[in-house]
């Protein structure tokens, strides 16, 4: 496992999920005067792990979390853990399922990444691959937006996406990209080992990565705006994959 710089997990539900998982936590900050059941649960879990609990005024939490909606709690974590690509395959093997991966090509918005992780968890995606450069990583905003799903979906961060894609293909994974010109996504059958590539919010999938995809999928649209938010598009495609793997 690989680690990155210190950050904060913020929000009540993400904090509970992190405390119940094996996330390495340095300190728990709780807003003074709050009596909510969720806060009591967080304190109880923190005490069970023998963590340092610091009761602080709201202004201190605002400062620590850059004035985000922390809901009265923040966990100082040593690092977010990144998986290796092998960990993603192992996750699928543990479930006795063919791999279903997401590859996010230079996604920049942490809210989009958090939402995609949340959808991926709900649909049984075995892991997500993101690039090390020119893309958002695992931050407190991502963790909060994922509402705890980050603790259950392994995320691998790689130096070269194209090289990683070639490695996946050598291991029997079929690559499906997203593009304005492609097969209607509603006909996509995601049986077998597959990886779905979601492009950058503005530029889409890079040309070199697109050349390495086995097939392109498109979401038909009849409105005046011929584009969708990255997390919305990813959600539609992920659930088409889920539907084809789990028919009624």
Automatic annotation (TrEMBL):
SMART domains listed in its UniProt record: SpoU_sub_bind
One GO molecular-function entry: RNA methyltransferase activity
Organism: Limosilactobacillus antri DSM 16041
Protein keywords: Methyltransferase, Transferase
Protein family (similarity comment): Belongs to the class IV-like SAM-binding methyltransferase superfamily. RNA methyltransferase TrmH family.
Domain (RNA 2-O ribose methyltransferase substrate binding): residue spans on this chain: 8-83
Entry keyword annotation includes rRNA processing: no
EC number assigned by the record: 2.1.1.-
SUPFAM superfamilies found in the cross-reference section: alpha/beta knot, L30e-like
Keyword Methyltransferase: yes
Classification via Gene3D superfamilies: 3.30.1330.30, 3.40.1280.10
Gene field: spoU
Cellular-component GO terms for this entry: cytosol
GO biological processes: methylation; RNA processing
Transmembrane segments: none
Protein's name in the database: RNA methyltransferase, TrmH family, group 3
């Amino acid at each position: 496992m690989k680690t990155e710089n210190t950050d904060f997990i913020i929000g009540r539900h993400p904090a509970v999920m992190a405390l119940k998982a094996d996330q390495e936590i340095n300190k728990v900050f709780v807003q003074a005067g709050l009596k909510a059941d969720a806060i009591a649960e967080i304190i109880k879990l923190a005490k069970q792990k023998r963590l340092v609990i610091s009761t602080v005024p709201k202004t201190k939490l605002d400062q620590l979390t850059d004035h985000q909606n922390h809901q009265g709690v923040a966990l100082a974590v040593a690092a977010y853990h990144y998986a290796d690509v092998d960990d993603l395959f192992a996750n699928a093997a543990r479930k006795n399922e063919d791999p279903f991966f997401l590859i996010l090509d230079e996604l920049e918005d942490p809210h989009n990444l958090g939402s995609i992780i949340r959808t991926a968890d709900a649909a049984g995606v075995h892991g997500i691959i993101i690039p090390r450069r020119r893309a958002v990583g695992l931050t407190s905003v991502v963790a909060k937006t994922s509402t705890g799903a980050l603790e259950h979906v392994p995320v691998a961060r790689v130096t070269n996406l194209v090289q990683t894609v070639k490695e996946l293909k050598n291991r029997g994974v079929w690559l499906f990209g997203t593009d304005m010109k492609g097969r209607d996504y509603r006909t996509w059958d995601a049986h077998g080992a597959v990886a779905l590539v979601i492009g950058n919010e503005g530029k889409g999938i890079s040309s070199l990565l697109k050349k390495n995809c086995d097939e392109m999928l498109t979401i038909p649209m009849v409105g005046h705006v011929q584009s969708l938010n990255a997390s919305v598009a990813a959600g539609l495609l992920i659930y088409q994959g889920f539907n084809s793997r789990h028919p009624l």
